[in-house]
């Protein structure tokens, strides 16, 4: 199983979301992926930062996001297998996935969502 991460920049305000390197994991293992953000604050209530993924041949699937005020929403089908952490002091978000299965093989994207 391979998990690939892609980083990207958006807009003229130089908003950057830099993800960790690609990870290859086996079914049953746990992994933690990171995303370092710059150009905005994780405590800004106008934005949420979270994760989406795309498995081969499928559409994007929303995983989780957390607003700057701390409110969080996540995909109920995935909530028992993942943890989402936000650390505003280091401008970092983490996605911890446990007990990986073959169907978790995907490209995972860190994403910012406006209000």
Automatic annotation (TrEMBL):
<dbReference type="InterPro" id="IPR013783">
    <property type="entry name" value="Ig-like_fold"/>
</dbReference>
<feature type="domain" description="Ig-like">
    <location>
        <begin position="13"/>
        <end position="115"/>
    </location>
</feature>
<dbReference type="GO" id="GO:0019814">
    <property type="term" value="C:immunoglobulin complex"/>
</dbReference>
<dbReference type="GO" id="GO:0005576">
    <property type="term" value="C:extracellular region"/>
</dbReference>
<dbReference type="GO" id="GO:0002250">
    <property type="term" value="P:adaptive immune response"/>
</dbReference>
<dbReference type="InterPro" id="IPR036179">
    <property type="entry name" value="Ig-like_dom_sf"/>
</dbReference>
<protein>
    <recommendedName>
        <fullName>Ig-like domain-containing protein</fullName>
    </recommendedName>
</protein>
<dbReference type="Pfam" id="PF07686">
    <property type="entry name" value="V-set"/>
</dbReference>
<keyword id="KW-0391">Immunity</keyword>
<dbReference type="InterPro" id="IPR013106">
    <property type="entry name" value="Ig_V-set"/>
</dbReference>
<keyword id="KW-1064">Adaptive immunity</keyword>
<dbReference type="InterPro" id="IPR050199">
    <property type="entry name" value="IgHV"/>
</dbReference>
<keyword id="KW-1280">Immunoglobulin</keyword>
<dbReference type="InterPro" id="IPR007110">
    <property type="entry name" value="Ig-like_dom"/>
</dbReference>
């Amino acid at each position: 199983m391979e998990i690939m991460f892609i980083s990207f920049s958006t807009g003229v305000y130089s908003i950057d979301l830099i993800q960790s390197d690609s990870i290859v994991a086996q079914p049953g293992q746990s992994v933690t992926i990171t995303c370092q953000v710059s150009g905005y604050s994780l405590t800004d209530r106008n934005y949420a930062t979270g994760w989406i993924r795309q498995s081969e041949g499928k559409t994007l699937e929303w995983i989780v996001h957390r607003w700057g005020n701390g409110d969080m929403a996540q995909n109920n089908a995935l909530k028992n297998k993942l943890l989402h952490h936000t650390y505003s002091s280091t401008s970092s978000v983490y996605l911890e996935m446990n007990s990986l299965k073959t169907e978790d093989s995907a490209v995972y994207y860190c994403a910012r969502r406006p209000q």
